[in-house]
Amino acid sequence: MAWQGWPSSWLWVASCGLLLLVLVLLASPSSCRARRTLRSLFMARSKRLLFRIGHGTWASRRVWARGAGLSTDVPSCRYSLYTRTWLGYLFYRQQLRRARNRYPKGHSRTQPRLFNGVKVLPIPVLSDNYSYLIIDTQARLAVAVDPSDPQAVQASIEKEGVNLVAILCTHKHWDHSGGNRDLSRRHQDCRVYGSPQDGIPYLTHPLCDQDMVSVGRLQIQALATPGHTQGHLVYLLDGEPYKGPSCLFSGDLLFLSGCGRTFEGTAETMLSSLDTVLGLGDDTLLWPGHEYAEENLGFAGVVEPENLARERKMQWVQRQRLERRSTCPSTLGEERSYNPFLRTHCLVLQEALGPGPGPTGDNGYSRAQLLEKLRQLKDLHKSK
């Protein structure tokens, strides 16, 4: 009889309702002790369901209060759910499906660079990410950087006819590490490198600051650049063995005319990481993790409207993007001339941002304070 199925049906409805309530409470930016306790219990008792990526505290973002000149801490529950639970992986898979449908050939048209037997091949993935293959063309060996879409990366590997022997992961976020599992399983001798502090999925070879990775003629150095995440690394391909420019694969530390958000650190931490990059040569090629050039240069024009280097670069970028062409690489020499996040030592930015944070506004900004203010303004610029 029909009524015999009612108990199980009501149990199913009640379970779904309880799950929905739990998710709402987990995602709500609340300071309520009961909700914090519920979040903690849910995390602690869901070991089989959750992807525990990273071991830091719940991240917080500094959000600039419009008009008030004050900043407030807003718990970034969405960020924690993305990085520490299975919901983040599900969101990444949804992004992957949508991007493959929308951009079957990739979001941008890229151009590889060849230097005396070493090839750098950008691979457009997701909606604005870049993965990379670094290839020793003589040995037919390849290294993949941040392979977020294993299908796109594998297609490039097969097209180039190379053997994938290493994956370099800049950080744990799924849009940079999501392909580690499939590629490492498909290429059984492939090693997965990254920071042990970041909880990189399927990590096999942990790296520390200034560790070297050698593949054929490729000599690649890992540099610790925390801030975006606690264990963020960038990778510097030494140009000396192949008599060409060095190449910096910057992940989410540095973009063309921009830098990444500070999810797991302070402005001081991020400034130190950016200074690490500033110590490299002007001819170093910058290969970033995202195609953000046009948006970033637009913001740079707000804070430095009379910067002629920025204006020239913006005109070039706009021509590139009209044809959906990639804007990478740039050089660190170029970035020094127009990237506001690398120009915190410049008086023109101090003047552009107005009085400093002292009681009378006479003290000026420290470089870290200026970087934090720039980041806040950039976030507001993007939200408009």
From TrEMBL:
Residues 1-34 form the signal peptide. GO terms for cellular component: mitochondrion; plasma membrane. This is Probable thioesterase PNKD. The keyword Mitochondrion applies. Residues 128-290 form the Metallo-beta-lactamase domain. It is found in: Cell membrane; Mitochondrion. Keywords: Cell membrane, Hydrolase, Membrane, Metal-binding, Mitochondrion, Signal, Zinc. The keyword Hydrolase applies. Its cofactor is Zn(2+). Belongs to the metallo-beta-lactamase superfamily. Glyoxalase II family. Probable thioesterase that may play a role in cellular detoxification processes; it likely acts on a yet-unknown alpha-hydroxythioester substrate. In vitro, it is able to catalyze the hydrolysis of S-D-lactoyl-glutathione to form glutathione and D-lactic acid at very low rate, though this reaction is not physiologically relevant in vivo. It catalyses: a thioester + H2O = a thiol + a carboxylate + H(+). Coiled coil: none annotated. Pfam families: HAGH_C, Lactamase_B. PANTHER family: BETA LACTAMASE DOMAIN, HYDROLASE PNKD-RELATED. SMART domains: Lactamase_B. One of its GO terms (molecular function) is metal ion binding. It is a peripheral membrane protein. GO terms for biological process: methylglyoxal catabolic process to D-lactate via S-lactoyl-glutathione; negative regulation of neurotransmitter secretion.
